[in-house]
C-alpha cells in the first residue's frame, strides 16, 4: 500500500500541521516539513508558550528551548536561548553544522548569530504586562490546560515513510531563571526512531523528564504496543508515581511506521492536530481524568 504522508501536532495547532502536511503531500521530506510546521507557532504572537511572544521567566527573560530529530537518528537542540525567533532552526543547525547535539544559553546565541540568525526582542507588551501583573502576587501555579500549555511538538511522515520530529517552547511561564524543561531534551519532549516511530510530549516538563516519556513511548511501541497504548502507559507511569498528579497536565502524541497515531493525557482537554489526505482535524485525546 502507498504511504500516506501526515503531520500531527500537540494541541489544536491545525495551521502548523497543515503547513507541514501540505509540504509532505508535495513530496518534501519529513525534516523540512516538521521544521516549517513548528515555525508557524514560533512566529504566532498569540501563542505565549512558544517563540516570539512567549511568556518570560519570573525575572522577565524570554528563554526558549527546542529540538529536532531526523529519520537517521540525528538530533539537535538548544536550551535557554534568548532573542531568536526560531529556536527550532538553530537546533537544526546544531545538528547539521556542529559535532554536538545541544547548545545552551550564551553559546547557543553566539552560534545562532554566527549562522546568520537575527536578534529580536521576543517580549511583547502583552506578555510584559501579564508578567508585571503576576509579580504582584508571585503565585507559581500553572493552570491546567490553559496557562503554560501550548508547546508544539510535531511528528511528520513523508512519502518515503520516513519520520522526523520537532518540539519548541518558551517553557513554563514564570519559571525560575535558568530552568530548562523537557521540550529540548532528546527522549523526553521528543524522540524519533525511524524504524519504529516517534513521540512528543507537552505539559509539566519536570514529570516528562523524570519518566523520559517520549523515549519510553517509542520503546513501548518497539515491544509491540500501539501508539495509543504506549502513550497511555507513559502517562500512567507518571500518574502512579506522583501523588499530586491531579495538579498538573502531561500529554503525549505518538506515530508508528504504519501511520497509526495515538495520544493520552492526565486531564481532559488536550487535543492534537492532524493533517492527512488534504484534510485537517482537531482530535480530542483520551484522558485519565474526566
Ligand atoms: C515545559 N513541557 O517547558 C513544557 C511546557 C509545555 O505547553 O508543554 N507547555 O515544561
Structure in words:
- This protein has helices spanning 14-25, 30-43, 87-97, 105-114, 125-137, 205-211, 213-222, 227-241; strands spanning 6-10, 64-69, 75-81, 102-104, 152-157, 163-169, 190-193, 197-203, 250-256, 261-267, 271-276, 279-284, 286-289.
- The protein has 290 residues and is of the alpha+beta class.
- Strand 3, helix 3 and strand 4 (102-104) form a beta-alpha-beta unit.
- The strands form two sheets. It has an eight-stranded mixed sheet. Strands 7-8-9-10-13 form a five-stranded mixed sheet, with helices on one face.
- Residues 49, 148-151, 169, 171-172, 181-183, 202-205 line the site of N-hydroxy-L-asparagine.
What secondary-structure arrangement, pairings included, does this model have?
Blueprint: E1 6-10, H1 14-25, H2 30-43, E2 64-69, E3 75-81, H3 87-97, E4 102-104, H4 105-114, H5 125-137, E5 152-157, E6 163-169, E7 190-193, E8 197-203, H6 205-211, H7 213-222, H8 227-241, E9 250-256, E10 261-267, E11 271-276, E12 279-284, E13 286-289
Parallel strand pairs: 3-4, 10-13
Antiparallel strand pairs: 1-5, 1-11, 2-3, 2-6, 5-6, 7-8, 8-9, 9-10, 11-12
Helix pairs in contact: 1-2, 2-3, 7-8
Bound molecules: N-hydroxy-L-asparagine (SD4).
Pfam families: Asparaginase_2
InterPro entries: Ntn_hydrolases_N, Peptidase_T2
Protein name: N(4)-(Beta-N-acetylglucosaminyl)-L-asparaginase
Amino acid at each position: 500500500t502507498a504511504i500516506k504522508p501526515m503531520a500531527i501536532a500537540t494541541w489544536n495547532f491545525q495551521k502548523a500541521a497543515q503547513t507541514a502536511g501540505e509540504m509532505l503531500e508535495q513530496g518534501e521530506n519529513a525534516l523540512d516539513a516538521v521544521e516549517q510546521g513548528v515555525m508557524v507557532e514560533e512566529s504566532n504572537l498569540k501563542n505565549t508558550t512558544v517563540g516570539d511572544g512567549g511568556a518570560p521567566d519570573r525575572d522577565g527573560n524570554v528563554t526558549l528551548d527546542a529540538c529536532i530529530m531526523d529519520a537517521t537518528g540525528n538530533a539537535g537542540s538548544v536550551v535557554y536561548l534568548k532573542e531568536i525567533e526560531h529556536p527550532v532552526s538553530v537546533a537544526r543547525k546544531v545538528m547539521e553544522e556542529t559535532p554536538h547535539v545541544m547548545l545552551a544559553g550564551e553559546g547557543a546565541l553566539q552560534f545562532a548569530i554566527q549562522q546568520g540568525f537575527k536578534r529580536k526582542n521576543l517580549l511583547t507588551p502583552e506578555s510584559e504586562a501579564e508578567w508585571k501583573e503576576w509579580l504582584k502576587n508571585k503565585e507559581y501555579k500553572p493552570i491546567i490546560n490553559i496557562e503554560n500549555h501550548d508547546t508544539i511538538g510535531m511528528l511528520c511522515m513523508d512519502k518515503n515513510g520516513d519520520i522526523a520530529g520537532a518540539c519548541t517552547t518558551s517553557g513554563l511561564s514564570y519559571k525560575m531563571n535558568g530552568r530548562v524543561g523537557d521540550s529540548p531534551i532528546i527522549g523526553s519532549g521528543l524522540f524519533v526512531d525511524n524504524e519504529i516511530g516517534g513521540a512528543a510530549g507537552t505539559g509539566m516538563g519536570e514529570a516528562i523528564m523524570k519518566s523520559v516519556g517520549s523515549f519510553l513511548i517509542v520503546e513501548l511501541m518497539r515491544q509491540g504496543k500501539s501508539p495509543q497504548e504506549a502513550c497511555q502507559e507513559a502517562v500512567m507511569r507518571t500518574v502512579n508515581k506522583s501523588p499530586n498528579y491531579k495538579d498538573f497536565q502531561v500529554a503525549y502524541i505518538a506515530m508508528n511506521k504504519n501511520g497509526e497515531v495515538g495520544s493520552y493525557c492526565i486531564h481532559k482537554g488536550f487535543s492534537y492536530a492532524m493533517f492527512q489526505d488534504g484534510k485537517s482535524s482537531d482530535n480530542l485525546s483520551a484522558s485519565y481524568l474526566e
